Amino acid sequence: MKKLAAKVFGDIKNDLPRFVRYVFWGAITAFFNLGVYLLLTNALGLHYLVSNTVAWVLYVVAAFFTNKLYVFGTRGQTGKQVAADLARFAGSRLATCLLENVMLFVFVTLLHGNKNLTKIIASATSAILNYLVSCLIIFSKKNSAGERR
Question: What is the reported pTM?
């Protein structure tokens, strides 16, 4: 656990500009995700879990390319490498989408909480987990074969 914390916080300390870019682009894609969710849920009347899942799909595409190009700067890859990165990215985001949906179900359906406030809290939780996974696994300086990019 200490090594993980040292890696994450060391990365933030040693690469503050990347962390700032992640926060900036993360905020933009998070507002995009929230905006789509609110539009689908409040304006169009879709069920909040359906809205969250649709918003997630659109968010993943936007977040992948902003992270890839502007945060982690992984350019010049083959199509196969991009596809592998996208698969890992979507897979990790799928886990946080499921986490968000579980949080929404528990706090809205079971505990009768506010769906919009719960979405914001769930999204913030996901953002933290997504940064850790992106930093440590998906956009690391090594590819899936362990070779330097």
Answer: 0.73
